[in-house]
Amino acid sequence: MMRRLTLAALAVFAACLAAGAGSFAAGLKIELPPPQAALAPGIGSDLARNRCLNCHSTDYIATQPPGKPLAFWKAEVEKMRKVYGAQVADDEIAPLAEYLARAYGSGQ
Length: 108
Prior knowledge:
With 108 residues, this protein is mainly α. It has a domain at 45-104: Cytochrome Bc1 Complex, Chain D, domain 2 (Orthogonal Bundle). The chain has five helices and no strands. The longest helix is centred in the N-terminal third of the chain and has 25 residues, at 2-26.
């Protein structure tokens, strides 16, 4: 008898949950985030697009601390190569860091 009551109570509870879930989903509104920022135009933007955007969104690059010097960006590019395995050739480090410093840093 007690087992039947427990099962009946669980069935009623499950039915209430199912009925409530439908009304919740009907009123659910999802807002998508705004579109990504575009890479800043300029010499080196194609290189950044082909190297950096393999792993990062443009927003990730654009939201780095502002005003950082060339040395910061060079260290970041080297870290991405050595620590995370970014496919950046030796002769691409300087132009990539220079672009990032001009577009997102102090330019120096």
